[in-house]
Amino acid sequence: MTGALRVFSFVDRIVQFEPGVGARGRFTIPDGFSSLWPSLMVEALAQLAAWVGMAHTGFRRRPVAALAGEVQFGTYVVPRQIVELAVEIDECNTDVVAYDGCARVDGVPIVEARHCVGAMLPMEDFDDPKAVRERFEVLCGPGLPPQTGWDDALPLQYDVIACDGEARRHATVRVPEVAAFFTEHFPRKPVLPAAALADAQIRLAIGLLAEARDADWRLLRPRRVLGVKARSFVLPGQLVDLYAEVVGATADVAEVALTARVGGKRVSTGRVEIGDWDVS
Amino acid sequence: MSETTRITRDEIDRVSQRVVQIIADALDRDVGDIALGSRLVDDLEAESIDFLDILFRLERAFEVKLPQRKIMDDARGDIPEAEFEHGGVLSEVGVRRLQEYLDEVPVERFVSPLALADIPRLFTVETFCKLVVRSQRAKQA
Fold first, then answer.
1. A229 and B56 in contact by Cβ < 8 A?
2. Which candidate from A66, A95, A257 shows the least CB-CB separation from B49?
3. How far is CA B79 from CA A150, B88, B110, in A?
4. What is d(CA B27, CA B51) in angstroms, rounded to the nearest whole number?
């Protein structure tokens, strides 16, 4: 990895590490990242927590995205900003890694994640344990140079299939068969990152609300996601049905239920609260 | 099961409202859809990720620890693991022990052979109420 192009690794260096307890890390925002910042900042925290979990098991197991209980989003990020990542581990064993985390730029929180859980699975199914350990040692040492590459396959492009007034929207997205991010996520078992799917779902929700309000979608942003669950792996080439449904609204915030299905089976569920940029 | 380990109806009633609310929140369901006898998988369509979510929510709400394998470990008790299950399937002794432990589950639902992977299908809302009560008792002990 140190010599290969990185497109989906969001920890450049681990600056503090307490086994089984927590970690702090750093990541420089690459070009191309900005439009996906909410979900990918959550991914960055998940990756940092994953290092804690993997080290705890001697790199015999690794976590995969399972649950994000609550994530608050702050301001957006721009290329070349340095993000300070911090995770506190609530539980860490061979079955799960549970954590809270915060990503900050210049001391200002941009993402705060609570009650997140990764389910631990055999490392060998996903990656070479020796290579992963070596990567960890580099991250805890000199670190990696900032990621400069970006995968043109992201963000995922969806097609709106049906609109039900101002309340519901159905779209489909074809997961690419081949993409650079699959080489990292994961080398032995390419699966669509939950963050990439979540990003598409959030954008679908924003599009739904923008049309409902006859507003510019760029004036809307995700404020919070709740209870996001990655229920099943999504594989290269699969067709994913995305559903967004407004389930509640106040003057400031609309709550949208998100569901993704493959072949009729739920692969992801959750809710997102969408609001205006100019209301904090 | 001894009288000292049996969970009373009063103990279940003390926690059931909160447990039902937690399960409703985790499964995005109305509280009215959920009864003590509701089966998490067959009636409420819970998946493995939902079980994780429910356990963590219960831990936070009741300030107890609920390890993922707690039900199985408690059901097994002092029986050696090799006598309790083999090759991912419960032994006859294991099925009887589990039946005693999950006494809220109708006996006819315990089929033999019973695969470990199928055990969560037995769980009801009351199962989780009793899990919380046992953990509270352990914490107080």
1. no
2. A66
3. 55, 16, 19
4. 9
Among A residues 176-195, those touching chain B with beta carbons less than 8 Å apart: none
Q: What angle do CA B30, B31, B35 make, to 5 degrees?
A: 120
Q: Which residues contact A144 (CB under 8 A, 6 or more apart)?
A: A1, A2, A6, A9, A12, A13, A138
- Length of chain B in residues, anyone? 141
| Signed CA dihedral, B90, B59, A87, A16: sign only | negative
Place of tokens 């925290």: A45
ipTM of the complex: 0.88
Q: What is the pTM of this model?
A: 0.92
Mean pLDDT (10-residue bins), chain A, 280 residues: 69 97 95 76 96 98 95 89 96 95 95 96 97 97 86 90 90 96 95 95 93 82 95 97 95 94 97 79
Query: What percentage of chain B's residues is helix, strand, coil (to nearest 5)?
Result: 60, 5, 35
Looking at the complex, does the CB of residue B10 fall below 8 Å from at least one CB of chain A? no
Whether B52 sits inside 8 A of A67 (CB atoms) is yes
Nearest chain A Cα distance for residue B92, angstroms: 27
Q: Give the 3-state secondary structure of residue A16.
A: strand
User: Residue A109 is encoded by which pair of tokens?
Assistant: 């929180």
Helix, strand, or coil (residue A8) = coil
**E strand intervals along chain A:** 13-18, 22-28, 61-73, 82-92, 96-105, 108-122, 159-164, 168-174, 220-230, 239-249, 253-262, 265-276
**Nearest 5°: CA angle at B137, between B133 and B140?**
140
Judged by a CB distance cut-off of 8 A, whether residue A104 touches chain B is no
Tokens at A23, concatenated? 């970690």
B73 at the A interface (CB within 8 A)?
Answer: no
A134 close to A59: Cβ distance less than 8 angstroms? no
Q: Could you give the CA distance from residue A135 to residue B24 in angstroms, rounded to a whole number?
A: 42
Asked if the Cβ–Cβ distance from A96 to B52 is below 8 Å, we say yes
CB contact under 8 Å between A67 and B28, yes or no, is no
SS3 B86: strand
Nearest Cα neighbor of A42 from A96, A109, A111, A99 is: A111
Cβ–Cβ of B50/A66 closer than 8 Å? no
